[in-house]
Amino acid sequence: MHLYNRHRRLRKNEAIRSMIRENHLTPNDFILPIFVAEGEGIKEEIASMPGIYRHSLDNTIKEVKEIWDLGIKAVNIYCKVSDNLKDNTGKEAWNPNGLMQTTIKAIKDAVPEMIVMPDVALDPFSIYGHDGIIKNGEIVNDETVDALVKMTLSHAEAGADFVAPSDMMDGRIGAMRMALEENGYHNVGIMSYAAKYASSFYGPFRSALDSAPVDSQDIPSDKKTYQMDYHNSEEALREAIADVEEGADILMVKPGMAYLDIVKLVKDNLQVPVSVYQVSGEYAMIKAAVEKGWLDNDKVILESLTAFKRAGADLISTYFAKEAAKLLNK
Ligand code: PBG
Predict the structure, then answer these.
(1) How far apart are CA 10 and CA 171, in angstroms?
(2) Do the Cβ atoms of 54 and 82 come closer than 8 Å?
């Protein structure tokens, strides 16, 4: 054969492959989600997420120092609080001395340059496990937004660099942005979970925080009235455009691996930084296959994370951040 184009010429060896490589993964791309528990000296492994722990604050600080040294520059924070602090209003969420607020302060004291991005949503503080306040069986939007604004201000007060609303209420980005401006927090960013789908891939996270929606006749058993329907993609663009107009700085798509088309859609249509969340169920799937000896841990981690970059993500929230940073630093 006399072929003009032989694509394999550019794959001949690692030197040429590395020269023409289009996307690169570095620890700068990562945000590590961390679970914080009450108490001291606690390091509890999450059963469905081998290698991922709920740490008490003292151990959280050790972890944050360690990952900073690996080159990871941002963390998402999620808190697990005891049941007696939960109610329908979620008011523990904006307690100035709550676990979240204390954690934000402690991280900023210990590693001031670490970008701290606390989660803004009521579910870990709700007796019903929903991201909003419930009235007559409905998750009410506008009252929930008022609560999220209080939560946002308490995070800003504690020293958060960004807030990361994961609740999917309408109009919350605008309300949060306005409240931040009015209270002098001009430089606090918003990483909005703009396109967050009602997904079965969140299971392990909900057991980590004990935050699954309760089983009750009067309460919706899923989050489909606020999180998005996974059959849709145009709708993701409407959500994303609205959040940019309302003042979001970074847009997140979630989950990750099954939603790469949405990452690309948002990135191609809006000139803003896009992050993607490789969620708990995705981590669990990979680790389960690795434990069975069916997948190569290191190679699959790097391949799955690079796919996010290829789809257009600027940032990746991933439970693999620490392991991947170690692999990339080798
Ligand atoms: C809740 C929240 C969830 C996740 C992040 N924030 C779960 C949910 O919406 O029920 C999921 C993250 C993961 O699965 O890793 N506001």
Answers:
(1) 49
(2) no
Ligand 1 touching residue 166 (CB < 6 A):
yes
CB 205 within 8 A of CB 280: yes
Q: Number of folded domains in the chain? A: 1
239 known member of a binding site: yes
pLDDT digits (tens, 9 = 90+) for 212-255: 999 888 899 999 999 999 999 999 999 999 999 999 999 999 99
For the chain, the farthest-separated pair of C-alpha atoms sits apart, in whole angstroms, at 76
Known catalytic residue at 196: yes
Residue 20 covered by a domain: no
Q: What's the predicted TM-score (pTM) here? A: 0.97
Would you state the pLDDT for residue 216? 86
Q: Is 254 a catalytic residue?
A: yes
Whether residue 236 is contained in a domain is answered as yes
CATH number of the domain at 239, please: 3.20.20.70
202 Cβ closer than 6 Å to some ligand 1 atom: yes
Would you place residue 260 in the very low, low, confident or very high pLDDT band (cuts 50, 70, 90)?
very high
Cβ of 123 closer than 6 Å to ligand 1, yes or no, is: yes
Parent domain of 269: 25-329
